[in-house]
Every structure is written in C-alpha cells, then in structure tokens.
Automatic annotation (TrEMBL):
The keyword Signal applies. This is SH3 domain-containing protein. Residues 1-23 form the signal peptide. Residues 42-114 form the SH3 domain. It comes from Phoxinus phoxinus. Gene3D superfamilies: SH3 Domains. SMART domains: SH3.
Length: 132
C-alpha cells in the first residue's frame, strides 16, 4: 500500500473510532410513531409545559414550566411503556433560538393548538433513538 492510501485509511479508522466511542446504544421507546407527514418534518401541534422535566438521557429534552413546545411526533407506546412525544423547544434569549429537539413525557405538557389533524403512522428506526 502506498503512503497516501495508508494515511487515508488511518484517518478513516480514527474517525470511525471517534464516532463509535462518543455514541451510545439506547433502547427503543416505541416501534411506531405518529407524524404529520411521512418524514416527520412538519409540526403536528403546539403545547405548553405544565411543569419542569429533567431529561433522563441524551434522547430527551429538558422542559421548563410554561415553555412552548412544538410537537413533531407522538410515539405509540408498547406494553408497560410511557407515552413519549418528540418536539422542539426554544430558549428565551436570542442566542438560544436554535431549537433543541428530543423526547419528553406527554403527561408533562398540555397540547394547546393542533395544526395537523390528519396524521400518518410509520415505523420508528434506530436513528429515532440515537444518542450522540
């Protein structure tokens, strides 16, 4: 193997090692989810946080009481599983306006406005629960 190809192979191996050491395998929260469209790219509804919620791991988001949440998907829970929804929250400061997306328990929020009454149910994938 010549020097440039060996260096490229080494770089790829280092990159893959970094990716695999900084990610975590986590359990699936559900096998199916409800979305506004087949890509879950549109907001289903807007909700308000009823109380504070502290995220259990990197799949989840923190909620503050009174905070606005944009709901993108609703997981269909399996037996003995909690009901989790996926959404985005925004900070009050301008620098925090980049939305944070993750799961939260649906009983911590009150859905205030539904944008999309007609929804689709699709299977979840491993990427839905990826933790980085």
């Amino acid at each position: 193997m010549d020097k440039p190809h060996g260096l490229m192979l080494l770089c790829i191996c280092v990159f893959l090692e970094c990716v695999t050491t900084h990610t975590a395998r986590v359990e699936r929260l559900a096998d199916r989810k409800i979305c506004a469209d087949k890509h879950c790219s549109y907001v289903i509804s807007v909700a308000r946080a009823l109380e504070d919620y502290v995220a259990a791991d990197c799949r989840f988001i923190n909620l503050r009481r009174g905070q606005t949440i944009y709901v993108f998907s609703k997981l269909r829970p399996g037996e003995a599983a909690g009901v989790f929804w996926s959404g985005s929250v925004y900070g009050e400061r301008y620098v925090d306006q980049m939305g944070v997306v993750g799961y939260f328990p649906s009983n911590y929020i009150n859905e205030t406005y539904v944008f999309q009454k007609e929804t689709v149910e699709i299977p979840t994938t491993d990427m839905d629960f990826f933790c980085a």
